[in-house]
Amino acid sequence: MIKKKVVYKSLAEQVYESIKESIIRSELKSGDRIIELEIARTYGVSQSTVREALGLLRRDELVVTHGNKGTYVSNFSKKDIEEIYTFREVIEVFAIRRAIERITDEDVAALEDIYNNMVEAGKTDDIDKMRLNDVAFHSIIYKIAEHSFMYQVWEDITNKMSRIWYFTGQFYFRDLQELAEMHKPILDAFKKKNKEEACEAFMKHLNYVRHQILSPANPS
């Protein structure tokens, strides 16, 4: 029997997670003010706990504090999006090449399970399930690559990636099934342990998504 680790989260971490998800899902939008007293009342916690949670959100660049003017949900521009995607061109291709050198049959099975979850999410039009599994699919590649610094960098940008994806995903895909299917060539290349095919499939996927997001017709 596999033992599961129980992760304890402080009140501040719980408030942080809740607000972070609201920002990622665009329930709290860029420029919205975060008022400590209102957050404290909503969650039934002290203002010091809220301040600690806001510190974690600032660390992730999800909120910004302007002197005595208060704390606001951070903005992101098309320039920010372009920089994130051009950075992924470098870091993820490197991760894919390292991962293919180390991948096991169990790793392939895990990738396929996540892909199947994406297909199911596409069939049921479940945007939350799709987002979580889309992030999980790419995250497992970084884990397989066994490069701790690179994985930490990836974790640092996943909040921004999730926020961008959730904000724009409803606009640039005809349906969620399309997103799932774009991962199939990547999965197939990993099964064959073919670095060039995997990198080519990833770049095709990345460039298509980037083009759709940065298209002048996109409402973001």
In short:
The chain is mainly alpha-helical. The chain is 72% helix and 4% strand.
How does the SSE layout of this entry go?
Blueprint: H1 11-24, E1 33-34, H2 36-43, H3 47-59, E2 63-65, E3 71-73, H4 78-102, H5 105-124, H6 127-145, H7 148-172, H8 176-181, H9 184-192, H10 195-214
Antiparallel strand pairs: 1-3, 2-3
Helix pairs in contact: 1-3, 2-3, 4-6, 4-7, 4-10, 5-6, 5-9, 6-7, 9-10
Q: What are the defining features of this structure?
A:
3 strands, DNA-binding, TF_FadR/GntR_C, mainly alpha, DNA binding, about 220 residues, about 5% strand, GntR family transcriptional regulator, 3-stranded antiparallel sheet, Four Helix Bundle (Hemerythrin (Met), subunit A), transcription, elongated
What report would you give on this structure?
- The structure is a single chain.
- The chain has 220 residues and is mainly alpha-helical.
- The chain folds into two domains: 63 residues, Winged helix-like DNA-binding domain superfamily/Winged helix DNA-binding domain (Arc Repressor Mutant, subunit A, Orthogonal Bundle); 137 residues, GntR ligand-binding domain-like (Four Helix Bundle (Hemerythrin (Met), subunit A)), CATH 1.20.120.
- It has ten helices and three strands; from the N terminus they run H-E-H-H-E-E-H-H-H-H-H-H-H.
- A three-stranded antiparallel β-sheet has the order 1-3-2.
- A hairpin with a 5-residue loop joins strand 2 and strand 3.
- Helix 5 runs antiparallel to helix 6.
- The radius of gyration is 19 Å and the shape is elongated.
